[in-house]
Each structure stands twice: as structure tokens, then as C-alpha cells.
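PROTOCOL LOG
Step 1. Enter all chains and additional molecules of the complex.
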Amino acid sequence: MSEETNNSQQYVVSSSPHTHSGASVRNIMLDVIIATIPAMLMSFWFFGFNAFRLIAVCVISCVIIEALCRKAMGRNVGITDLSAVVTGILLAFNLPPGLPSWMAVVGSFFAIVIAKQLFGGIGYNPFNPALIGRVVLLISFTGPMTTWSSWQAGPDMITTATPLGIVKMAFAAGQKVPFCFDSIMIKRFFIGDINGCIGEVSTAALLAGGIYLLMRRCISWHVPVFYAGTVAVFSGILWKINPALNMPPSFHILAGGLVLGAIFMATDMVTTPVTKKGLIIFGIGCGILTMIIRKWGGYPEGVSFAILLMNAVTPLINKATRPRVFGAKKS
Amino acid sequence: MKTYKAQYKIAGGVHPEYHKELTRDKGIEIMPLPPLLHVYMSQHLGAHAKPILKKGDKVLRGQLIGESTGFVSAAVHAPTSGTVKNIEETRTAAGTFTQTVEIEPDGQDQWTSSLTPISNWESTDSKVLLNAIAAAGITGMGGAGFPSHVKLSPPSGKPIDTIIINGAECEPFLTADYRLMLEHAAEIWEGARIISKILGAKNIRIAIEDNKPEAISAMEKAIGTADDSVHIVILPTEYPHGAEKQQIFAITGRQVPSGGLPMDVGVVVQNVGTALAIRDAVVNGHPLTERVTTVTGLPLAQPKNVMARIGTPYSDLIKFCGGINGVAAKIISGGPMMGLAQSSLDATITKTTSGILVLPAKAVTFYEAMPCISCGRCVEACPVNLMPCDLSQMLEAEDYEAARDCNVMDCVECGCCAYECPAHRPLVQYMRQGKARVSAKILEEKAKQAGKEKK
Amino acid sequence: MNIIVITLLVIGGIGLVCGILLALAANFLAIKEDPRVEKLLEILPNANCGSCSFAGCADYAKAIIVDGVAINMCTPGGPDIAKRLAAFMGVELQAMERKVAIILCGGDKEKAPRRSTYNGIADCTAANAVDGGDKICRYGCLGYGSCSRVCPVGAIEISNDLAVVHEDLCIGCGLCAKTCPRGLIKIIPAKRTIHVLCSSKDKGPVVKKACKVGCIGCSICSKLAPNEAIKMDGFLARVDYTKDLENIELVEKCPGKCIIKKHDLK
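Step 2. Run joint prediction.
Step 3. Record the structure below.
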């Protein structure tokens, strides 16, 4: 006891600086969670209980698995940084509404254990955990992961596949696209009244979250702008060359997981470059890869693979874009 | 004379909470002599001074008590008249040990006449002025404590065309330089002219941040109708605009080369306090025996700007400022961004003590052993374009070679990175450790090279 | 079926060709090295600690063969390995004694308190650079474990904020001694039993304020010890480990309680 009182009278000594901006990992994660709320509400609106079920299953399983894993690995339980919650929400956003819960748990396991904790936990994972979870599910359970069952509000036109899937199948069969992408469709796509993963459909809600993240300095504008910009330019060129076999840029931006990916996945701090130049390269790379996969790849959607591939070259981008040190000789 | 905003934008920088309102309107108060003064023989960058007195000797104010012992070293003088009580090794504010002369004041505060005032400095040879400054033991009073006579005698191959008088005071909480500019603008201006005469520099720049409009107008008034070679440059209120190399860039657009000194780009920077001390040494023949320091912090009863003698213990200064209300959790010598944390109030005022800051428990931030999440905020904040995130990971893994290749030696330890880091990593401490190891390695290599050449 | 066979044949064929190429390359591009170096390496402990003053075991082995350096320089190996090296090289075995590290400080958490609450990198060098270390004693062990982290055999434990060497595990490589920012670690012959566990050069009163088990510089031990086996270095008694010292009486006579007897570990 006497020693404790002794300690309390001692001053704290540390290296400078002795003041701090107040930012913390936990606050950043909290901001990301807040930013996902609009898209979450929209998913409840469009997909009902299924959306709620998937989000709840993913978040709870991610948190429990993270806690167990850290305990098993002899590290202090590190769930208070809320990163597992973020991973859970983003994984759920990337799942189709009809996916069985146990599959979501499998996805959570791969996201947390394989993609994150085995690499050393938060900060050490080279790949975006939520995307690893999604891609593992997509490859393992292709059927359930591409079944889009409960699209409530729409007409019968697009009930069996996502717009990207329909387009892919139509072009592959040498047919014309079975719907006209006019201003009414654009509006529907923007609101999110389409088939897709539960969190990716509503561009409007995702943008609202993105603006919040920008205001809170949790993401920088470089990746979303250059990602979407590259996709727009790439698809625009293809569309100009042959409008019969390509969709316009507006379609490529609004359909599928591009906006979700560009705002929430490709801006994940840990797995993306730290320099502004690097972020621009990262965004452009994601855009090009996404379009290559969408146009020539086997899958209708390429956002997840594109971001994961760019994750892999992030250390190289960091090295290549290291800024010139103040006062260093110009080479 | 012209007044304008700085043209060049420095990289990085942060905007901490300034808290200057605690002391900015408090005029400089002269502190009565404390019962005992402990004068360190190392108050400057470079070799420690050597005490030349023995126990029981009588001293006068301004009398030499510590001899300069090398080219980069500075003389130390008695801060008041009295008796030498003891000479022993004690711990300084930096935590290192140095010989310390303990003086008991006799209350007379009688000046020695060892230095002769030079009233007509304008027609005096620069060498004579330089000797007077060296004899007065003047060092940089902003922080590092580089001996001024060394700074003011660049080698002949490095002509100086511009001097900058640094009144930026970008550290939060501190207002000592601000008060000096308000209360002693004319003397600072004379000091600046002395410096410019010694160096033969044609341009004088006075750098002040834009959160000090009163200081700007005070300096404008003091300078009056000087010609166009004199500019007051208004810097944005952004830390670290007071850092030497960043300030030179903001004002002149010149980059001090990596590993080089300001004189390499024809510039010498002196703090406003140093300019004042130089003027005092030349015009009045007074060695450096006192300085203004900001004693501040929320738990302090009466934060003040205090004119205190060199060697005044921190505990006496805190007492003079009404003591501490409640609990102090951290004591800092200097400002919160670059100051030195203290484990007691035993340290004493040196030529470089710009402030004493008392932090309550709720203002103390703790470093944690968290991994880097690669957010890139440190890269954005770094004024020298380093990547502290990568460097800290290299240094955590003790890969000093890699850190050296990534320019760890260019770090100025300003603290912007650690201020921003959401993972609360002790980035500056990693940098310091890396710099210490790498410079040891460089010395070793140099010694090896020298040995080879001998063979 | 056909496809499977073809696949197997193609893959197997590629593997075979690559294997043959590799085998040939290993033969033609092999670096000619004295085969005895490899044999020596088998004898050496391969801890690569550097205590022999060479960059690692391979370097030392090479130096023995090429430059004919002494075979008794491997501290971790001890007399046993020196004997085997001598037998292999056909040289006479020079005297070799086992060495261990000792931490010349006895000030743990209770005996030598801290003067502030350090917050930062958990490393002694780093802590020592902030305000000169957070212990009252400016010479004492900081207890942040830099030595235990460099130890290749895990022989140093931090117990109660004080580094303690497990002498039975210690191989005497000296990496810890190089790391300690306060220079508290010495490499000494394992057979020595009497130690002054203090490195403080401060005067008695200063030591007493900082630590309950510090050397106060009374010089009683230096007078009692035969053959000048303990000498005074200012206000600090230092054991001269080149001399025999078995005097247990010293332990009781020390007013600072910093002289201890440890078990013989020959």
C-alpha cells in the first residue's frame, strides 16, 4: 500500500512529445462503424431480416473468434479496439442476403484467424480480412454466394442474378442486355433498389458514410476518387468503342460492389499505402484490375479480387513512393 | 522595411492546442533571488565547461566560474554575487550528469566589471564583438543551446547573406519570446543589427507566427524606417515553424542540405532571446546570467513569465508562481512538443530553459506498445518527409541499417508524428534510439576508415 | 484417364529434368571449401554468438583451419568442445575454463526504488535515454530486459525488475554485457563464488538513499580479502576475478549487504 502511494506521487517521464491529438485506433474504428450505419439501414430496408441476421452473425462471430484466437495465441485480449466489429460488418456487407448463417461463420473464421491473427493481428495483416472472408466463401460455396433470392421491391426483371451477372451472361451468350440503363434505372441503382450483396446496393447510403469518413479524416479522398475515376475512364473507352457489347461508365460505377469497395474496403488503413502518391497508384490499380476482371474474367464482379491483388503490392508501392527527404540532393 | 506572409509552404506540420492564453498577457516578472543557485557546467551543446573556483570562494555577478573547454563550448558565469558552497556532480534537466557550482547569494547582487561595454559597436571590429559574445557565454536560447560565437563565425567559404531572428515560438504554452518582443523590441532589434554586422549579412528577417499580431506591430514600431533589407515575415501558426530548417525554408525557400547546417545555404538563425542577450553582452558588457522562462500549466496557481537567474531550482520557480493546486502528474522542461520530462523539481534554470510546464493527470498522454496500423498520418505530419511508420517498425526490429537507408538521421525529433499517431506509438523515442545507434555506427566506421588510412 | 497420365508424365518429366540440372549445377558451381571447415562446424555449438570475436561459428571454423587461430576461443562450447576441436585438429589442448555472465546489481523493485513512472519503449537503452533512467540509483539495473532479449539461450530472467542470470544455462557469450546501457554485466569464470553485487560509484550517503543493498565504499572487504582480491575503485569495491577468493566471512561483514556467495558452477 505504501508503495502505491509512493508511485502516485511520482511524476510520469517519457520521451517527447508530451501532448497528443487524441486520435486512437478505437475512435477510428468507431467512426468506420458509424459510417456504415446508413448502408446498414438501407440493407434492412431492402433485405429485411436476412440483412439483420447476417450482420449480427458476422459481428458476433468475428468478435468471439478474435477473442478466442488472441487468448489461444497467448496475447492479451484485444477486442476493445473494435476492429473485429468493423471486419464483421464489412464481411456481412459483402454477402448475399440468402446465405446460411453457418457459412457466414466460416467466412468470419477465415477473415479473423487466417487473414488477420495468423499474421500477428491488427496492423500486420497484408490483406483486407473481410475480403479474404468473402473470397474464401465465394470460391468454396459459389452457388449460395451467387444466389440472390430475396429482392423484395423490384419487378421480375432482375430476380435471379445481379445486374453485373445478367450483363455478363448476356454478353457471353452474344445477346443484348435485357434491360435499358436509362435515367430511371440509374436512380434505382443509386438508391439501391437492385440485387446484390446486402451492403453494396445503396450507393447513396455508402456515399453518405464516405463523406462522414472524409470529414473525420479516417480516409483520404484519393482512393475512392481515383478508383471510381479509373473505372469510369476504362469502361467509357470500351463503351465508346462498342456500345453494343459494353455497358456505360455509370452502370459500372453503380452496379456491383464498386462503391462499397472504393469507400470502405480499398481505404482500409492497414492494407493500403501510406503516401498520397501511393494511394493514387493503389486506386488506379484497383480500377484497372476491376475492369479487366469484369470484362474478361470468369466472375461478373472483380472488386474483391482487384483490391486483394493491390493489397499484395502495397509494400512495393510504399517503397516506390517514399517521399524525397527534406534537404536531400535531387537525383 | 516590409511585412508580409511567408511564401513557402513547409511539408507536414500539426496544430496542437496552444494554451498560450495562460501567460500571454502576463508581463515579465523579475523573480527575487532564491536561497541557493545550482549552476550547471553544461548548459549548451558541446563540451562541458570546467569549474575554475573552489569551495568557499567569493564571486561577483557575471564573474567567470566555468571555462569553455573546446571550440564548441561556452563559458559559464556567476548569476549573482555570493559564496561558492559546493562543487559536485548533479543531474541536469536532460537526465545527464555534470559538474555543478552551488552559489549562496549574498543579496548584494554586485556586478563584476570583467567585460567592458562597447557602446559604439557600429564602428567596432567584428572580431572584437565576437570575442565579447564568447566571453559572455551566450548560447542559443531557443532550445538546443548552440554556442552563439561558433554560430556567428562561419568558415570563410560560407558567406552569410541572411540572418533570421526567430520569434515564431511555435511550441504550445510558451510565451517567453512573445513577451520579450512586446517589452524589449528595441533591444532585440539592436541585437539583430549587431548579429548582422558580425556576419556581414545584408538581409535581416524577423520571423513571427500570425497568432502574435501584437508582437508583429511591436517589432514593426521598433524597426521603424529601416530600409528594404529588413523584412518581418509572418509565418502561419503551425508547428514546427519555429524549427530552424523549416523556418529557413518557409522564409527563403532554401533547403538546408541533409546533414548540413543553415550556414550551408547562407543563413544564420538566432532566437529573439539570443539577440537580446547578445545586445546585452555587447552594449552593457553583461554576461548571460538570467533569462525569461514561462512557468505555466493548468495546475499552477499563477502562471507567469519570469525573469529568473541561471541556476534557479524549478521548485523555487513553482513556489514563486503560487505553487501547484491539486496534483501535478508530469513536469516538463520546455514545451510539450520537444520538452524534457522531469522526475523531480530539482533541476535548475539553464540558458536554454524556455519554459517549465506542469501537466495535470488528465492531460498526460501515454504511449502504448500497439502495432502500427499504417494510417499514414505520421507521413502526412512529418516536416522532413520521412515515413515514421516504416522507420519505427524497422527500429522496433532493431534493423538499424535499414533505418539508416531510410534517412533516420534526418529526423528533427519535432514530435509531429507521435502527436498524430492513433496507435500511440512512441515514434520519437524510436527515432532517438535509432539516431543514437546509427551515429555510433558512423563514428565507428570513421574510426575504422582513419585506421586504414594510417596503415 | 489419358489426360491424367499425360499430366503425370509432363509434370514428372519437368521435375526430373530440373532435378538433373540442379544436381549438375551443384557439382559444377560448388565453391571449393576445405571439408574440414564443415567438420569443425559440426563440433561447434552454432549459436553464432560472436564471443570468439569472429562473425559466427562458420567464420571461426574457417579461421582455425586457414589462419590457425587457437581452438579454445569458443566460450559457449566450454572445455568440452575445446577438447573435441583439439582432438580433431591434432593440437594440444590449452587451458579453458567455463565462463558465465553476472549482473553486478542487487537492487530489485523493493531494494532500489524508481524515482518516476517511465512510459515508453520497454527497453533499457531507451529508458536510460529518457531523463537518465527512472531508477534513483544512476548505476543500477533498470529491469526492462534488454539483456534477456539478446540472450541466445534464454538464461536471463527479469525478476522483480532486476535481471538475474541462470548460471546453469548461461554460455558466457557476452552479448548481454555488450547490450546493457549501464555496463552492469561482466563475464567471469564460473568457479568464482564471492561477488560484490553493486556498481554504484556514488558516495555512501547517496547510495543509501538510492538502494538498500548498495556498496557504500567502506572498504572493509578490500582490507579483509587476501591477496588484494577485492580492490576499491573510488567508492566501489570490485572483485578481482583473476584471483582466488573463498572468504565467506566477507558476506557477513559487509555493512551494505551487497557481497554474496553463489554456488560453485565448475
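Step 4. Note key features.
Confidence is low (pLDDT under 50) at residues 1-8, 150-158 of chain A.
The CA atoms of residues 107 and 133 of chain A lie 4 Å apart.
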